[in-house]
Amino acid sequence: MKGAILNVTENIAKTIINFLEKGLDKKCFDAVLIPIKVPAGDSFAWVLVQNKSLLKDANPLPPVMPVQGAKALSSITKMGKTNRKIAAIMRPCEVRAAVELSKLEQVNLENIFLISIDCPGVLPLKDYLGRPKEAMDKFNKILHSAQNDIQWGNESTRPACQVCDKFIGTDIGFCQSNLHIGILGTEDKIIFLIPNNESGKSILNEMDIEAEKSVDNWEKKAKEIIEVRKKKRKEVQERLKSEVMGIDNLLDTFSKCINCHNCRSACPICYCRQCYFESEIMKLPSDDYLMRADSKGALRFLPDTLLFHLGRMTHMSLSCVGCGACEDACPMSIDVSQIFNFVADNSQELFNYVPGKSVEESLPLKTYEEDELHKVEI
Amino acid sequence: MEEKIGVYVCECGPNIADNVDIDRVMKTISSLPDVDVVERHKLLCSENGKKFLKESIQKHGLTRIVVAACSPKQHEVTFMKVCEEAGINPYFFQLTNIREQCAWIITDKELATERAIRYIRAALRRIPFHKALVKKEIETNPDVLVIGGGIAGMEASLLLASGDRKIHLVEKTDVLGGKVKELDKLLPRMESSLDIISQRIQEVKQSEDIKLYTNSEVEEVLGFLGNFVVKVKTGENKELELRVGAIVVATGFSMLNLKQLPRYGYGQYDNVYTALEFERMNIDGKILRKDGKPPKSIGIIHCVGREERGYCSGVCCMYCLKFANYIKSKLPDANVTEFYQDLSIPGKARQKFYEDTKAKGVNFIRSNEVEVMDKVIKYKTEEGEEKTSSVDMVILAPAIEPSGDTAKLAEMLRISQGDGGFFQEEHPKLAPVSTSMEGIFIAGCSQGPKNIPESIVQAQAVAGRILSSLIPGKKLEPEIKTSEISEALCIGCQTCLEVCTYGAIYFDEMKRVSVVNEVLCRGCGNCVGSCPSGAASVKHSTTTQLHQEVVEALR
Which residue in B491, B547, B554 has the most chain A C-beta atoms within 10 A of its own C-beta, making it the best mutation to test that interface? Predict the structure, then answer.
């Protein structure tokens, strides 16, 4: 694998922003979709920037993920392709969600230039909101720990991020942005620009950036961390299995749920216009509830909480990119993302499918194979 | 309007009554609110039973009917007819299966009875959500497009053509007759192929009801059974628009390109011929080597390309025997050897033909490895011994392949290609000449290798299918239980377009939602299964109906 090397001026974020400014100057793209700190200073929002001078407030790697980037991209391109080129700076899980959504015509990737960055994970939203300054310091520490900490990211990031093994935006992370920015193993002195395809190469070309340098050291470091994360992911899932397997355990786990459906609203993959569980079908005449109370002795309200999660799980687990947005959104701190990740890993393995890996890979429900699913045959 | 619901429990003689406590079922169901009538009968599907059901529906003025009896596969249609006769929409009826799914499979009578009650309750739960479905009728065009003017295409055209049905026969080349025209004699009577086919060609040309387009090709096909719109590019380079009700694809076959198999020496050595080249030689009257002299020793090689193509073409064995007869009648002293892998000679006349041929002094050698060198055939015997045979002429029987246009036509007609790349029939045993597209039929070798009588049988079968379904002046009743896609719920992902086998869904670019063409839809439910946003459902099995039924069944 080959890439370009940029020297870090001031800090990594500044270097990336300089690169984007240059791209706008050279008309490689006409706008940049990037997180920018909100004026109040306590969160970040996706902003489509056309005026170069506004880029200075941008943060290509914010400490939190209030809105999953693929949702932002979907809002822009749901009705069709953009006629002008947009560079979108996103985390690998956001790129994978965008690719997944493009297969469902919810994102149109034509004229979108996806740029991913090595991702250390994000902090839980609620840890950030109260004390943004302290949280930011904490996040920066994690970001720079890449040089010595083989785990990269620690107990402060979200649980989903702690066990994420697809945090690299190249094929070793099952992610295909157009251009990936590598920051691992660089002692904050340089960054790598790694083109993943022809479009990535040609943009570097247009910007007169030579991309023939070896990135082997970066890749070695990335692979080491991936291995550590994979192991951790397995351990966590083994533990989770004993905690949630079986209907009683599941009922226990979700008994805290208040049926707010925030997890579904935050999920980039849950794109239904109306969730089945919010439709009229799920509302029953009062006699029916009484009948159900009769047969069980009692009926809890709001009802069908677990059913909602099981339904959502069945529905989107093949496309779940494990971004953790659902867990951030849960006001009751249920381990939604970890449970969904666990189920998703298993269902995806069944179809040998990695969501968001490639635009060419068709959704499992769209394809028919005579020889598949033996694992679940009775 | 308040619904009046009736439940009818069938005892099915002893079939249900023996293992389901009908009295208890009656008592429990009668106690449910909203059930107006509960009746039982010894055998509801009998004439007596149907009369009882009809009169009871009318007497009580019922608006919804649940029958608890056998599998819907057996008597759903029976009872729907009774509902219709009683004056209520047949889709306001639900058959719940307490025989196959209760009485016959549960040994414990008490459990079977509970299950039967549960199923009836589930049916009662869904039936208020039933919607009246009304049969629709569409005007149809009885005319037929036949693609391919070979023996199958001509046969179908001749059978179908009549005063009130025009046939448009489109042939790619400048002549009719297809491959049969390239043969000298026909098995087993050794009649002249040309005589037979010429007679057919004459009949086609003379028919006032067959419009023939030679040097022409089909360019576009839109529409559906009864209403196809076809664009044809004619020999005069004109573009024609035809309107037809059905399409027959009889595009025949081509022979495996022998350049792919250099071990048979075709094109490398003199006097190595394909089967069709040898037929030509016989039509011209003389079997001669390149140097103008008659051959003394001829090797006929069967199964050329069988291994590579993965199937037996089925017709080569017999025509190779025929070739031996050609040779023996013209050159009685020539030595003839047939190299075969397996002999395929089924049928009432073929064994005799084989024995007669053998008796004329033809040699048969079984070998799975045959190679043609200059004037020599090298082969491995069944015992594994390498042997050679001197020959001064070789005739090859190459595998039969789909004709070159198959893939293009398959895409245009939205039908699939199956084994070997031939057009895929709807069902290999039960529906061998229809396709997944209603109104599009396949006949002859376009569906797979076959001999002349088999091609004729298929063409006649196609004619039968069309004559019985596309009657001039008669309107068509399309499937009622079609899919529908909710405009409010569709997210425009177009997954359904990809999984619909019938080409029945299109995408409305303005509204950015998928739309079902109700005439094409056969209600298979593929779109429902794959719709990620719950927008698609099949009428009479709507999400609401199923949800209600399942909720009650699992209570």
Answer: B491
| Closest chain B residue to the Cα of A296, Cα to Cα | B555
pTM of the model: 0.74
Q: Are strands B37-41 and B5-10 parallel, antiparallel or unpaired?
A: parallel
Distance CA B538, CA A241 (A): 37
Which amino acid is it at B234?
Answer: T
H or E stretch at A199: helix A198-206
Sign of CA dihedral B227, B229, B230, B236: positive
Domains identified in chain A, total number: 2
- A79 contacts in chain B (CB < 8 Å): 512
Q: With CB atoms and an 8 Å threshold, state whether B499 touches A104.
A: no
> Does the distance separating the beta carbons of B512 and A365 come in below 8 Å?
no
Please indicate, yes or no, whether residues B272 and B394 belong to a single structural domain of this protein. yes
* Residue contact B533–A292, C-beta within 8 A: no
- Domain-ending residue, one of A198, A213, A236: A236
Domain finish residue from A189, A211, A236: A236
Residue A241 maps to a domain:
no
Distance in angstroms between the alpha carbons of the first and the last residue of chain A: 45
CB pairs under 8 A between A and B: 47
Give residue B534's domain range: 483-539
| Whether A70 and A140 share a structural domain | yes
A281 with A232, same domain? no
- Rounded to whole angstroms, the Cα distance separating A182 from A162 reads 19
3-class SS of residue B14:
helix
B91 falls within a domain:
yes
Quote the ipTM score.
Answer: 0.79
Burial class (CB in 10 A: 0-12, 13-18, 19+), A303: middle
Nearest CB neighbour to A365, from listed B491, B530, B547: B530
Contact A271 B498 (CB under 8 A): no
Strand partners, B5: B64
Same domain, B178 and B108: no
Residue A148 tokens read as 């010595």
Contact B493 A104 (CB under 8 A): yes
Q: Report yes or no on A307 lying in a domain.
A: yes
B493 touches chain A (CB under 8 A): yes
| Closest partner CB to A271 (pick from B491, B530, B543) | B491
Contact A104 B491 (CB under 8 A): yes
> Which residue out of B436, B495, B514 would a mutagenesis test of the A interface target, given it has the greatest number of A Cβ atoms within 10 Å?
B495
Closest CA to B16 of B113, B82, B92: B113
CATH number, domain containing residue B521: 3.30.70.20
Question: Which residue is closest to A79 within chain B, CA to CA?
Answer: B512
Contacts of A271 in chain B (CB under 8 A): 491, 532-533
Ordered per-residue pLDDT tens for chain B, 555 residues: 589 999 999 999 999 999 999 999 999 999 998 899 999 999 999 999 999 999 999 999 999 999 999 999 999 999 999 999 999 999 999 999 999 999 999 999 999 999 999 999 999 999 999 999 998 888 999 999 999 999 999 999 999 999 899 999 999 999 999 999 999 999 889 999 999 999 999 999 999 999 999 999 999 998 888 989 999 999 888 999 999 999 999 999 999 999 999 999 999 999 999 999 999 999 999 999 999 999 999 999 999 999 999 999 999 999 999 999 999 999 999 999 999 999 999 989 899 999 999 999 999 999 999 999 999 999 999 999 999 999 999 999 999 999 999 999 999 998 999 999 999 999 999 999 999 888 999 999 999 999 999 999 999 999 999 999 999 988 988 889 999 999 999 999 999 998 998 888 999 999 999 999 988 888 999 999 999 899 999 999 999 999 999 989 988
CATH classification at residue B31: 3.40.50
Domain-terminating residue out of B343, B367, B400:
B400
Question: Which domain range does residue A157 map to?
Answer: 2-236
Residues of B in contact with A103 (CB under 8 A): 493
- CB-CB under 8 Å, A272 with B488: no
Residues B368 and B418 in one domain: no
Alpha helices in B225-298 (DSSP H): 275-283
Burial (CB count within 10 angstroms: exposed 0-12, middle 13-18, buried 19+), residue B468: exposed
Residue in A273, A281, A291 nearest the CB of B533: A273
